[in-house]
Design brief:
- The structure is a homodimer of 287-residue chains.
- The first copy, chain A, is an alpha/beta fold.
- Chain A has 2 domains: 172 residues, Rossmann fold, CATH 3.40.50; 98 residues, Pantoate--beta-alanine Ligase, Chain: A,domain 2 (2-Layer Sandwich), CATH 3.30.1300.
- Helix content of chain A is 37%, strand content 21%.
- In chain A, helix 3 links the parallel strand 3 and strand 4.
- Chain A has 8 helices and 10 strands.
- At the A-B interface, strand 5, helix 5 and helix 6 of A face strand 5, helix 5 and helix 6 of B.
Chain lengths: 287, 287
Amino acid sequence: MEIIKDISGIKDRLSNEKKAGHNIGLVPTMGYLHEGHLNLIKKAVENNDVVVVSIFVNPTQFGPEEDYEEYPRDLDRDARLAKKTGVDYIFSPEPDEMYFADHSTFVQVEELTDRLCGAFREGHFRGVATVVSKLFNIIMPDKAYFGQKDFQQFVILKRMVRDLNIPVAMERIPTVREEDGLAVSSRNKYLSERGRETAAVLYKSLKKARSLIKKGENDPEKIKNKIEAMIQKHDLTEIEYIEIVDPETLKSREEIRDKVVIALAVYVEETRLIDNIYLDREEIPHA
Amino acid sequence: MEIIKDISGIKDRLSNEKKAGHNIGLVPTMGYLHEGHLNLIKKAVENNDVVVVSIFVNPTQFGPEEDYEEYPRDLDRDARLAKKTGVDYIFSPEPDEMYFADHSTFVQVEELTDRLCGAFREGHFRGVATVVSKLFNIIMPDKAYFGQKDFQQFVILKRMVRDLNIPVAMERIPTVREEDGLAVSSRNKYLSERGRETAAVLYKSLKKARSLIKKGENDPEKIKNKIEAMIQKHDLTEIEYIEIVDPETLKSREEIRDKVVIALAVYVEETRLIDNIYLDREEIPHA
């Protein structure tokens, strides 16, 4: 495995790999790899000749009040984990390798980015779409792997790929969870012991919602109220949003039908956590 | 020469060309080819194994009050001219092949797009950057050819290519002019005979500016006033802007030095015409 910091370096390596007929899988990350990332990497290793993991804490997707500076970084540890999991190249540029001082081009996906997390994190998804476009242009992967945990991100990037004709297959991989159901995330490390115990309620409430729907509840308000009540019982929590949406448009559903995503963002202590579940057509009883 | 209307068709052809080791030159156009386009095509033919001309009147770059509907189109004529000039493929998609009904992704180059024409054509360069990104992703050319006449467009697209790491070499080709100096343009056909004669003053005034600068004039205001006076003598004209700018930032120059672009947009009758000249370091006397 090689760790490469410059754009021309990774392009050279991958140009040779392509000449050798190898197809390329990309796992874009902000590093501090956890089981969720490793699961993406495993899928990439299974399905591609060459796997690139990008590790880049992307400044343009953090708001001014957000945790860009304190976001956890540990390249040595990431490199060990990546190597063990079968990665061929880590691409870990510095910010000034990725952005000129007068950088001025942004990729904007409209509407989809105003909903859910986008309503609370202005400019976040513009930063994500921009950096992922750049990574796609640099790496030119055949397939790219993203976690279901960041569901809105996946929907937005998939729309971007469609709208801009970017030649990459987008793979959405199920969320990896801790034993108590908490979605694994680099930000879980910010939690105190008590916060960490509390955080399990997010997924518990989503499971409860799933079971209510399976029993025939089709009123989104009732389901959201149930989730809200479960979470609010815990004094360390503050709900940002709970939404039940169409998985493609991300618009709120008036009624539970077809397929839906239930998504939420909740502060536990100072830490903003997100989670979601996807209910397929088969899981929703017909009216 | 083949005329191809669908994205998958052109991708298939070009994938085979690339496998055969051929490099690809792209000339993006809105069709109604004139000597300016043919000059771009000639340069592309000289320097590439395979030349693609895209012909697409891009709806997203026209404002609601602009001439999208009446913009001249003549694919048969274009095909004859392109074939004669050595083009291998014309890619001429319909609008619904390029844009889904729920298209929502746009490429925005900030600041550069607010200046010159951008100040008067809101959203124009966003549409241009978006469609050119799409064309680059579909065609994946080694080189792309643009005319100097649309100088701001070139500067914006070059910035986009740099900022998003798009793997294409951007070629800027000098403006082709009629005998009386008028820059050739598909929109010249909108002019009446008298309008057409009047339009020659645009380039005459730019040439006058060049000669004043060569004689040592370094005050942009004086030069702009001279251009303005020459154009205003003609009653069919209405000046939109006359600017003297830095060729990379497009910011107004306080003083003529280093290198500058003098750019203007003028209505002649109902038709908006643009032109510009580039003055290199060598053409500007040192203070």
